[in-house]
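User: I've been trying to design a sequence by hand for this structure and keep getting stuck. Would you show me what you'd pick, starting by listing the structure so we're on the same page?

Assistant: Good idea, let's start from the same input. This is the structure you sent:
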């Protein structure tokens, strides 16, 4: 075990990000749900605002834990075409999975944000955080979604990652920080002593606490929200 839990992982990852502390224009973006407790520790340590980018894995029919792609807020979608062709997954089966995950994505957006628009990422230094990096499918669509908003700099930060996935992601962002890259990797959860599923209530609570801390700065030009 490398980490006691996601809070421990976030605190240790925050130590590697101290050069961004108290720096104007830095925004921490979490991938819910598991990335939020990690990112909350980072945002707190860096004195930076916290927001979420909802991303949903598109699981292979009958094997939901294996991703054939991902979707993110803003109609962003990514498919692993090689895997889909190799397994001969039909367009109809893909459509069923996409529709189901889009419904869940919309539900989570409403639940987490309370109808508040996301922070404007244009010309900001964005630190994109998850609780781990395995295949890179989920983070890939999140990266593309963030890039569409034209941030000044995009950094991906994860406590633990597969080494190959870490290296690959590093080629498509400005900087990547993978605190630990154990080999063989297998799965993210293996490196946490406690890896219980993060609840919607926990996500809402952490975002509420972050919004409370930045209720004044989040409304000023330094940290504007996007209009709908």
């Amino acid at each position: 075990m490398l980490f006691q839990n996601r809070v421990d992982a976030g605190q240790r990852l925050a130590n590697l990000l101290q050069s961004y502390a108290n720096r104007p224009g830095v925004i921490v973006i979490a991938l819910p749900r598991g990335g939020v407790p990690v990112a909350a520790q980072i945002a707190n340590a860096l004195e930076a605002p916290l927001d979420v980018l909802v991303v949903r894995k598109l699981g292979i029919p009958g094997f939901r834990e294996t991703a054939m792609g991902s979707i993110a807020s803003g109609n962003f979608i990514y498919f692993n075409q090689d895997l889909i062709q190799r397994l001969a997954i039909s367009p109809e089966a893909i459509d069923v999975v996409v529709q189901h995950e889009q419904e869940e994505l919309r539900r989570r957006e409403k639940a987490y944000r309370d109808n508040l628009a996301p922070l404007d990422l244009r010309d900001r230094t964005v630190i994109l955080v998850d609780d781990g990096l395995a295949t890179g499918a989920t983070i890939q669509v999140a990266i593309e979604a963030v890039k569409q908003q034209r941030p000044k700099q995009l950094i991906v930060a994860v406590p633990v990652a597969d080494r190959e996935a870490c290296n690959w992601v590093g080629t498509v962002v400005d900087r990547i920080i993978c605190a630990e890259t154990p080999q063989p990797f297998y799965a993210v959860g293996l490196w946490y002593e406690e890896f219980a599923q993060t609840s919607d209530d926990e996500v809402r609570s952490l975002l509420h606490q972050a919004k409370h801390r930045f209720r004044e700065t989040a409304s000023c030009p330094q940290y504007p929200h996007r209009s709908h």
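That's my pick for every position. To get oriented when you compare it with your attempt: The two ends are 43 Å apart (CA to CA). The longest strand covers residues 63-72.
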